[in-house]
TrEMBL record:
Biological process (GO), any one: N-acetylglucosamine metabolic process
Protein name: N-acetylglucosamine-induced protein 1
Pfam families, A to Z: DUF3605
Single GO cellular component term: cytoplasm
Database matches in PANTHER family: N-ACETYLGLUCOSAMINE-INDUCED PROTEIN 1
Signal peptide interval: none
Domain of life: Eukaryota
InterPro entries: DUF3605
Organism: Emydomyces testavorans
Length: 234
């Protein structure tokens, strides 16, 4: 059974563990109830994103992985920029945008598999769209997206994911959902990103979108390359 890191441990946790996280870590993987498609639809429709959770063993590995990544790269953002996105460090991504409007220029975003997906059923694939542009949010509403931002994301998801599936499935629109965590729920706040969930999509199409095959997250050090992180410019 996974064990929640003790509050008295001298090694600081890489991120805050919520009461739900600690509840999950008290379970075994066999006891864990996976998010199925209908459950995810309810969570997204009601904006109850705080209820999304990882499988106990994945959460424990994610904690260990995040600790290792921070010891090597300094921050999770450094790792993602260097190893996953190949974007320069110490330069605000917004200043590197080819187009100021989100999702217009493919050079301003990158579609990848989520390294640490939530605990979803095997028919669901969790994708992340990483962006150089900032998506406007309503800080008075907990950092939720604005109506205009929601429209932009909807249009991008439809033309990128739904349209690709239209020739494969009669219910293509019902196989794709997206969400953007409120600011308070984001584990990587300095890089803009949107989550996309797809159901029953062949892996060759996932590879077409992301350019990368599936990976089994059985090792908490997966993905660590120990790249030398350059010092910030004075």
């Amino acid at each position: 059974m996974p064990t929640a890191p003790a509050d008295t441990d001298h090694t600081p946790l890489p991120f805050h563990l919520t009461p739900l996280d600690r509840e999950i870590l008290s379970q075994t993987d066999e006891e864990f109830i996976y998010h199925d498609w209908d459950n995810l639809k309810d969570i997204i429709a009601t904006n109850s994103l705080h209820l999304l959770k990882r499988k106990p063993s994945d959460l424990l590995n994610y904690i260990a992985w995040s600790t290792d990544i921070k010891s090597i790269y300094g921050t999770i953002t450094n790792y993602i920029c260097l190893e996953r996105l190949q974007w320069p460090l110490h330069i605000d991504p917004v200043t590197q945008c080819a187009n100021p409007t989100p999702f217009v220029d493919p050079r301003d975003y990158k579609i990848l598999r989520n390294d640490w997906p939530y605990g979803v059923t095997p028919d669901i694939t969790h994708i992340v769209v990483w962006m150089k542009n900032q998506i406007p949010v309503d800080e008075q509403n907990g950092g939720d997206v604005t109506p205009e931002s929601r429209r932009l994301i909807d249009e991008f998801v439809h033309r990128t994911f739904v349209k690709r599936l239209t020739g494969e499935f009669a219910d293509a629109k019902e196989r794709v959902m997206w969400f953007k965590n409120w600011t308070a729920l984001q584990s990587v706040r300095s890089l803009e990103h949107v989550h996309v969930l797809v159901r029953g999509v062949p892996d060759e199409i996932i590879v077409e979108w992301t350019g990368e095959p599936a990976r089994k997250l059985s090792d908490p050090t997966v993905g660590i390359k120990k790249t030398m992180v350059p010092a910030p410019r004075p």
